[in-house]
Amino acid sequence: MRFWLLDAIESFTPGEQLTAVKSVSYSEDYLEDHFPEFPVLPGVFMLEAATQAAAWLLRLTDDLADTIVVLREAKNIKYANFVQPGQQLRVSVEQMKKDERFATFKVAGTVDGKSTLSGRIVLERYSLADNDPQQEEVDARVRDYLSKVVRAIAKPEMLPASVRV
What we know:
- 22% of the residues lie in helices and 36% in strands.
- By secondary structure, it is of the alpha+beta class.
- The protein has a six-stranded antiparallel β-sheet with strand order 1-2-4-5-6-3, with helices on one face.
- The model has no long low-confidence stretch (mean pLDDT 95).
């Protein structure tokens, strides 16, 4: 992951839901171009924030078992309002179904209670060693990195025992 959009995980119920926040500030580089006269969080970043929230729901539920979580499909994504610098995007994800490799989520984004994003996403999850056992060491390094990231954005009581320090 090149960058993390979520600043904090506010709530988490394993296998069910997760709520996270993204604070938008003027210092974010992409705002210079989107749009210079009226800076707003790009819609694709709202979708990415929802994808990251859903990925954390999977990872925390499954004790970081899968190192790779990718967006496979976005369905009926609707954007309703802008998110401007100084505002906080609250992203909620609800797990609808899950099998061995795929999970479907209902996603919603709000600012001050007003809808900014809604829709459904499908994530695919796996580990590199699933297809190549020689990649287990890489998976271990990724899990270590993910543990550090989630400790920075989630309350200790939300974390699986294996991730707590």
